[in-house]
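Tokens help. Consider this.
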Amino acid sequence: MIDEVLCEDCLEGMDRIPDGAVDCIITDPPYCVGVSSNGVKSSWSDHSLIKPFFEKLFSEFERVMKAGASVFVHTDWRTYPILYPLFVEKFAMRNLIVWDYEYIKCGNFYRYSHELIMFGTKGKATRRFVANERDVWRLPCYKVPGREHPSQKPVALVEKMIVDNTDEGAVVFDPFMGSGTTAVAAINTGRHFIGFELNQTYVDVCNRRIEEAHARR
């Protein structure tokens, strides 16, 4: 399981991760917002459907994390009000990071140009990065062409989270691995990774990018 991306449901796969095995969780879970599967724009009441899933997910996060480990969860302004109370039940919320991705996406009443990242720790933790670090990070996002997943994150963004909060040899976990950016960032920084991804096509992309990352080291 270590240094692998497995094609399976993350809640099922996490059952095999021992208690306290993970030093850092970095993930971009599905938001389930915007437009529903039948093409109808979702409403606020629809968001309550994701609550049981995230209650279970965050409980499992807490179990597999070491004491003092860090967790980063990407979200947006629509999902944050649902996730925040679930998050603070399990973790010490340290900040809400604003990722300014230096690109203007779609939007009607002011166009989107940032993403939110919930940052917390499992209980007490010692800050590892310098005291003057800001909570607004400016890093360009992936643009088409070159993007292999609709929500692909830049490697530099994930590397920052890893380096700021872990030592070399640490285990970084991403239950929604997508195209493998967290795995690549872990390899680049001398860390181990565990990952799950439901789509075999993306698992194949992960494996190719992992091989390429190892070849560059």
In short: The radius of gyration is 17 Å. The CA atoms of residues 34 and 42 lie 6 Å apart. Residues 33-42 have pLDDT under 50 and may be disordered. The chain is about 30% helix and 25% strand.
